[in-house]
C-alpha cells in the first residue's frame, strides 16, 4: 500500500514539475505569440489600426528674453513657456493586406485636438530666432544652394526685401508661429526676392502653405510631416509596410519598407554601420516576449532612423511586473564605444554631433538638432552656451515602461527637443555677430499611462493564468514530495516492525 502511495506521489511530483516548469510555459508562450498578430479580424489588429484612447501631446517653447544682446554676441537667456496641450489620436488608413508576404501596407496618421483647458491658450507672445532668416542663411532651402559669398549676399538681399527684418528674432503669438502661420509676401519684382519665392512656389520650403498666388503662410507646425507636429488637424507620418505576424524572418509589426524602400538612402555607410537599416516596428506595436538584450527597436520617420531605448532594470506598474527603458542618443564621436553611430556624423571623425544629440540636416534639410529636453544626458558644453535650462530626470528623461510577456507599453513619456544650429552670417548685419551655438527652440512630450482598469484586464488574461500555473506546480510538487516522504517513512516503519516481529517469534 505504502509503495503505491510513493509511486502515485512521485507521479504527481513529476507531472507538476514537467507541466508547471516545461509544458505549460512553452504552450502558453506559443499561444501568446500566436494571439498577437495583425491579421484581419484579430483583436490586436483592431487596437493597432486605431487607438481607442488618445495620447497627451505637449509643446514647451523657449522664449528669448535678451534678443538685442544676442545680436551683439551675447549669451542667450531663455524662459520656458508651456505647456501647450493636445489630444493626439493615432490611426492607420488605406490599409492593404499582402497575403504573399504576410504583410500589410498603410499610411499612418496623427490627429490632434487642442486642449486649452489643460495648458496655455496659444495667445502668448513668444520671441525666438526668425526661422526663415536663420534657416535660409544656413541651409539649402532656396535656389542659391551653396555657401559661396556671392550667393550668401543674394540670399541676404532677397530676405531683406521680403521680410524687411528689424531683428534676427521674431515676436509673435504661439499659435501664429506654430500653426496659423506668419505672412510671407512674394509679390516682389527684384530678382533676388523672386529667386527665394520660386522655392515657395515649388513647395520646397517645409512649413510653407500657399494663401494665394503671391502670399504664403509659414509655421513650424506646417512641417509636421517631418517633425510630427500638429498641422491643422492631421499629420501623415508616411507609407509603411510591416509584417502581420511572427515568422522565421521577422516578428509582428516589423517594418519591411518605408515609402516603398526597403532601407533608407540618407546616411553614409561607414565601417559596415547600419544607419540606413529599417529596424523594429512603427512604434505602435511590439512583439511579445521581447528580452531586454533584444532592444525595443522602432523606426522614426521624423528622425530618419531606427532607435532603441536602453534597458534600465525591472520595475512595477499598477502591481504588474515591468521593464523600464530610457532613450539616449549616445555618442557618435568615439570609435570604440558606439561604432554603429559613426554614420550619423557629417564627416567622421572630425565632424560629429555632440554627445546626446542628433544632427537633422540630412533628414529634414534644415539646420536643426535633436536631443532630450534641456540637453538632458547631452554634452555639458551645450548647456553652458545658454542660460535658463535646468535638466532633470523627472521632467526631461524619455521613458518607456514595458510589459515583456504580452508586449504591452504600459506607460511612455516620449520627449524630444529641437534646437537651431546658429552661426554668424557676415552678409547680414543683424546676424553678423551671433555666437556659434545650439539655440533651443522648443521641446515636445508624447505621453500615455494605461489606467488601472486596463492593467487589471491584462493581469487577468496573462498573470492570473501564470499565477494559477505557479499554484499548480508548487502544490503538485509539495503534495508529491510530502506523499513520497510520508509513504517512504511508513514503509520504513512497517518493514522495521516486521523485522522486530520476526525476531520475537524466532526467540
- Helix % is 25-40%
- Helix/strand class: alpha+beta
Radius of gyration: 31 Å
Major beta-sheet overview: 12 strands, antiparallel
Oligomer: single chain
The overall pLDDT, averaged over residues, is 82
Number of helices: 12
Number of strands: 19
Strand content: 25-35%
* Overall shape: elongated
Distance between the termini: 29 Å
| Low-pLDDT segments | 138-147, 223-232
What would you note in describing this structure?
This protein is of the alpha+beta class. The chain has helices at residues 2-35, 43-49, 67-71, 131-138, 149-163, 174-180, 191-201, 224-227, 361-364, 380-384, 393-396, 452-506; strands spanning 55-64, 78-98, 103-114, 125-129, 169-173, 182-185, 208-210, 215-218, 234-243, 255-258, 298-300, 305-307, 310-317, 320-326, 357-359, 368-371, 399-403, 408-422, 437-449. Strands 1, 2, 3, 9, 10, 13, 14, 15, 16, 17, 18 and 19 form a 12-stranded antiparallel beta sheet that branches. A 3-stranded antiparallel beta sheet has the order 6-8-7. It is built from 12 helices and 19 strands. It is elongated and about 115 Å long.
In short:
The chain is of the alpha+beta class. It has helices spanning 2-35, 43-49, 67-71, 131-138, 149-163, 174-180, 191-201, 224-227, 361-364, 380-384, 393-396, 452-506; strands at 55-64, 78-98, 103-114, 125-129, 169-173, 182-185, 208-210, 215-218, 234-243, 255-258, 298-300, 305-307, 310-317, 320-326, 357-359, 368-371, 399-403, 408-422, 437-449.
Amino acid at each position: 500500500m505504502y509503495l503505491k502511495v510513493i509511486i502515485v506521489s512521485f507521479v504527481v511530483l513529476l507531472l507538476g514539475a514537467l507541466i508547471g516548469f516545461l509544458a505549460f510555459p512553452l504552450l502558453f508562450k506559443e499561444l501568446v505569440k500566436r494571439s498577437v498578430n495583425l491579421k484581419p479580424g484579430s483583436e490586436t489588429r483592431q487596437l493597432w489600426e486605431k487607438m481607442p484612447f488618445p495620447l497627451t501631446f505637449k509643446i514647451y517653447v523657449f522664449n528669448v528674453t535678451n534678443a538685442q544682446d544676442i545680436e551683439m554676441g551675447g549669451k542667450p537667456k531663455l524662459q520656458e513657456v508651456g505647456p501647450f496641450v493636445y489630444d493626439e489620436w493615432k490611426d492607420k488608413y488605406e490599409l492593404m493586406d499582402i497575403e504573399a508576404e504576410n504583410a500589410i501596407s498603410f499610411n499612418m496618421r496623427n490627429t490632434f485636438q487642442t486642449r486649452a483647458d489643460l495648458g496655455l491658450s496659444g495667445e502668448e507672445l513668444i520671441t525666438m530666432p526668425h526661422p526663415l532668416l536663420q534657416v535660409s542663411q544656413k541651409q539649402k532651402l532656396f535656389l542659391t544652394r551653396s555657401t559661396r559669398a556671392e550667393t550668401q549676399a543674394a540670399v541676404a538681399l532677397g530676405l531683406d526685401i521680403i521680410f524687411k527684418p528689424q531683428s534676427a528674432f521674431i515676436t509673435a503669438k504661439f499659435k501664429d508661429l506654430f500653426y496659423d502661420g506668419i505672412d510671407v509676401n512674394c509679390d516682389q519684382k527684384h530678382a533676388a526676392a523672386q529667386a527665394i519665392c520660386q522655392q515657395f512656389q515649388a513647395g520646397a520650403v517645409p512649413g510653407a502653405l500657399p494663401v494665394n498666388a503671391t502670399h504664403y503662410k509659414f509655421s513650424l507646425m506646417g512641417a509636421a510631416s517631418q517633425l510630427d507636429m500638429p498641422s491643422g488637424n492631421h499629420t501623415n507620418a508616411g507609407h509603411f509596410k510591416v509584417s502581420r505576424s511572427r515568422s522565421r524572418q521577422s516578428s509582428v509589426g516589423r517594418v519591411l519598407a518605408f515609402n516603398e524602400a526597403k532601407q533608407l538612402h540618407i546616411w553614409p555607410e561607414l565601417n559596415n554601420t547600419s544607419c540606413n537599416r529599417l529596424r523594429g516596428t512603427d512604434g505602435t506595436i511590439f512583439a511579445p516576449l521581447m528580452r531586454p538584450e533584444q532592444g525595443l527597436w522602432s523606426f522614426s520617420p521624423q528622425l530618419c532612423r531606427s532607435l532603441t531605448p536602453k534597458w534600465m532594470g525591472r520595475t512595477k506598474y499598477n502591481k504588474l511586473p515591468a521593464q523600464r527603458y530610457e532613450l539616449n542618443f549616445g555618442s557618435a564621436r568615439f570609435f570604440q564605444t558606439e561604432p554603429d553611430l559613426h554614420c550619423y556624423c557629417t564627416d567622421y571623425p572630425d565632424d560629429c554631433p555632440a554627445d546626446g544629440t542628433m544632427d537633422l540636416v540630412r533628414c529634414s534639410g534644415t539646420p536643426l538638432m535633436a536631443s532630450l529636453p534641456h540637453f538632458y544626458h547631452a554634452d555639458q558644453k551645450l548647456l553652458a552656451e545658454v542660460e535658463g535650462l535646468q535638466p532633470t530626470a523627472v521632467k526631461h528623461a524619455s521613458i518607456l515602461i514595458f510589459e515583456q510577456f504580452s508586449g504591452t507599453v504600459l506607460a511612455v513619456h516620449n520627449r524630444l527637443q529641437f534646437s537651431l544650429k546658429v552661426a554668424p552670417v557676415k552678409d547680414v548685419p543683424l546676424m553678423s555677430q551671433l555666437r556659434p551655438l545650439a539655440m533651443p527652440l522648443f521641446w515636445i512630450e508624447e505621453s500615455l499611462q494605461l489606467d488601472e482598469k486596463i492593467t487589471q484586464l491584462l493581469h487577468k488574461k496573462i498573470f492570473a493564468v501564470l499565477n494559477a500555473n505557479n499554484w499548480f506546480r508548487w502544490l503538485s510538487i509539495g503534495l508529491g514530495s510530502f506523499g513520497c516522504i510520508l509513504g517512504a517513512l511508513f514503509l520504513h516503519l512497517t518493514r522495521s516492525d516486521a523485522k522486530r516481529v520476526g525476531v520475537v517469534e524466532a526467540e
